[in-house]
Write a structure and sequence with these properties.
The protein is 7% helix and 39% strand. With 444 residues, it is mainly β. The strands form seven sheets. Strands 1-2-3-4-5 form a five-stranded antiparallel sheet, with no helix packed on it. Strand 19 and strand 20 form a beta hairpin. The radius of gyration is 22 Å and the shape is globular.
């Protein structure tokens, strides 16, 4: 959900950009500071907060729709700064032995990833709980943390030369398992909202696999393409785990549908096409595994053709104003919002383009309102969906949908005993937390 922007044709407008854990908020970093936006509306893009106190921000992560935000700048790349942006105060800062490459949050844990080590903090008091040392070289800081604080699974590369995934339990602080996911090195990892599924892609970017957690059994295999290798820049589940989205350095975004296929389907009447289909399916049992596997891989359910290629981008699948949307943020400073048809898929329709660097809180240009009239059948189809839970009814997610400006997360949404964000004494005195030494943590 996070990207450090690197535009091949020159300096990018954004130095980094990331969605929060439930895709209700967008954070961007620039050379002058960082900004937070609410994603509760299609028509307008509300700026929740802007800070110019720290220049050259290259990591900014917000905890759901709370007031807690974590920032790292190029000026001090080895220092993590934790802020309560609504109060304008620094909660604490920690320094590490090398540059911070990525940070992941949920309501129980804060994970800091360096090139050859990972630090796990308790988000209640920012105490360092565990240091995972001597991890395989991880130059991009690739890791994923389950947003479900009931398990807090952490996934990271288990090898620098193969696609092995190391799965770690962030609550018990023990290794869960290793998953031989791909032949080549990993490029992307993503948990679903409950932490029961893990998606992965290798540096080739042609095949995306989904595994059960914590067992590590392969559940799905999707083929993004065969013609060329790509760099997967974003991999994300929808909040209901029905869809998986992948974007890359090409102009195409792929959305896959996680359907459960069973053998309890009614017997089809005998036809020539049905007979040939069964023959083809049986023939795959006698083909080499690599060939039969390619035949059984599912293709994209829906796609998007971006106007640009080669730019760094990240995607999110979210429900905005009761309809499923695909969000694409690009390094040139734009947010694109598409409609996703959850029944028929196909080409997603671009309905809005926002500028993330404009002076106002929303972009009023009529030329950016690209929404065509919605087909009546599509609206009716979405309205009939009653099995998909909304984010407001799912346990552990913010009820304000990111619309409020740094409001307090309701107490019942936190894990047992985490920080409350509305109490002046919610954290240890800042002077005691500042400059903590991570080397004192338990080592594995």
């Amino acid at each position: 959900m996070e990207a450090a922007a690197e535009a091949p044709g020159g300096p990018a407008a954004l130095s980094c950009f990331s969605y929060n854990q439930d895709c209700t908020s967008l954070a961007i970093g620039t050379t002058t500071g960082y900004r937070l936006f609410s994603l509760s509306s299609v028509e307008q893009l509300d700026q929740v907060h802007e800070s110019n106190e720290i220049p050259d921000v290259y990591i900014v992560e917000r905890l759901f729709s709370s007031s807690l935000v974590v920032v790292v700048s190029h000026a001090k790349p080895q220092q993590m700064n934790v802020y309560h942006f609504k109060k304008g105060t620094e909660i604490c800062n920690y320094s590490y032995s090398s540059n911070i490459l990525s940070i992941r949050l949920n309501r129980q844990r804060l994970v800091v990833c360096l090139e050859e080590s990972i630090y796990i903090h308790n988000i209640k008091d920012m105490k360092l709980l565990k240091t995972i040392l001597d991890t395989p070289p991880n130059t991009t800081g690739l890791c994923a943390l389950s947003i479900n604080h009931a398990n807090s699974y952490l996934a990271y590369p288990g090898s620098a030369t193969s696609g092995e995934i190391a799965l770690y339990d962030g609550n018990t602080l023990k290794t869960a398992c290793t998953i031989p996911a791909h032949d080549g090195p990993l490029a992307a990892l993503a948990f679903n909202s409950t932490g029961s599924k893990l998606a992965s892609a290798s540096e080739k970017g042609t095949v995306i696999r989904v595994f059960s957690i914590p067992g590590g059994q392969k559940l799905y295999e999707f083929r993004r393409g065969m013609k060329r290798y790509v760099n997967i820049s974003s991999l994300v589940f929808s909040m209901d785990s029905q869809f998986l989205c992948a974007s890359s350095n090409t102009e195409t975004v792929h959305i896959f549908k996680l359907e459960h296929l069973t053998d309890s389907r009614p017997e089809e009447p005998p036809t020539w096409s049905g007979y040939m289909g069964k023959m083809f399916q049986a023939a795959t049992n006698y083909l080499p595994a690599q060939v039969s596997g390619m035949m059984n891989q599912d293709r994209a359910f829906a796609t998007v053709r971006l106007n640009v290629s080669g730019q760094r981008n990240i995607c999110a699948l979210s429900t905005i104003q009761k309809l499923p949307r695909l969000l694409v943020t690009t390094s040139d400073g734009h947010l694109y919002i598409y409609n996703l048809d959850p029944q028929d898929g196909g080409e997603c329709v671009l309905i809005k383009k926002h500028s993330l660097l404009g002076s106002g809180k929303m972009e009023e240009n009529k030329e950016n309102d690209l929404r065509p009239p919605l087909p009546q059948s599509y609206a009716a189809t979405v309205a009939r969906q009653s099995t998909v839970p909304s984010t407001s009814t799912m346990p552990g997610y913010s009820e304000d949908g990111g619309a409020l400006r740094g409001e307090v997360i309701p107490e019942h949404e936190f894990a047992t005993g985490p920080v409350c964000l509305d109490d002046e004494n919610e954290f240890p005195p800042i002077i005691l937390c500042r400059g903590g030494q991570p080397g004192k943590a338990k080592r594995s």
